[in-house]
Specification:
alpha/beta, 10-stranded mixed beta sheet, 24 strands, disordered N terminus
Amino acid sequence: MSADIKSHDSLWDDYNQSDYMQQTKNGLTEALVRQISAEKEEPEWMLTHRLESLAQFQKMSLPTWGPDLSTLNLDKITYYAKAMEGQAQNWDDVPADIKNTFDKLGIPKAEQEVLAGVGAQYESTVIYHSLKEEYQKKGVIFEDLDVALKKYPELVRPNFMKVMPVSLHKFAALHGAVWSGGTFLYIPAGVVIDEPLQAYFRMNAKGMGQFEHTLIIVEAGAQAHYIEGCSAPRYGVDSLHAGGVEIYVREGARFRYSSVESWSKDAYNLNTKRALVEKKAHMEWVGGNFGSNVTMLYPCSILVGEGASADHLGVAFANEGQTQDTGAKVIHAAKNTSSNIVMKSISKGGGKSIYRGLVEIAPQADNAVVSVQCDALILDEISVSDTIPVMKINNASATIAHEANAGKINAEDMFYLRSRGLKEAEAAAMIVNGFIEPITKELPLEYSVEMNRMVELEMENSVG
């Protein structure tokens, strides 16, 4: 991702011509689901899965417990579009207009300098994927999930949509019916990957839907860090992102999943992310959410092994006309488990930030330890921040700490920075970046810089 973004326009108004959309139709039908499966030459069990998911989707209602989704017209979404045939084996083979889009995001440069592997998805299909040879030799698999479905059925089939079942909610069922592309990452037991792996997902066309599926298996004692980035241009009509992430962290393994999402402000970001964490394993979620009309995102860790632990760190920025409904879910299902949740939200221009969290302690989860901290920064008189924590404590031995704070930019801090020559907007951006520093410091330097730049873009014309 590039730190050279100059303005909101270059971030959300830059898009390519999409002649391939002439071959597509809006709306979801059984014929389309069958077409997706046929074009991908999927095994019969996957077609069955898709059709069963479609049937569930058609029976289920929209969620009513969170932001209002009634204005989202699902009949006007394009659920599947291919911008190019096949997958490029070399970056130079990617069509020029698509390649230029990812060049602006810094993907090829990042691959060369800091990444162990990289994947790039454009609309419904992965257009490029690579992994450093040294990790291939260690048995690491980093593939487009469409490819892995056929190459590694013994790994994909037993785990696909098991920790993220289609019965979760309507958009999980939709995802099960029309998922396309995404990442499959398999790390063998004991393998440690010191460099991050990255995938970047780009929606380009008007009214598009993107439904990538990320499936990650981290075997016993392995360690790795995976980063996802997402973006889409602005057209003034609804688009939909309903991806899925499921992660299996085996005994004694450690895994970090980071994401920086910068959707356009006509996108609905309704993503589902869940991890199953086994004995003495550790799962970390680090996320930044910017843009979108509505975001509903609550990464979930299910601690099923004794001594399992999870960290959830997140930032959400709600600007004018936006609702950022984000948070975390942790289910403690075994003894001596622990979790730490730190969420930061910023609201300006009438935006609405909501922390929505769930901590559940199962009856058998003796000696669980939980810490939840929610901090909100409200930048004007018309913006809103809410905290909706849910605690289901079914074991009296649990130790629970919850702290929520809301505040505004301190006038003395602003005066001090202005007295040092900073403009008002620059001073405010510096204070906001300091507010989210506990989250950004957990990202590699280039991604931390990018998140700070996103804050600067959101802060443009925010004061004065």
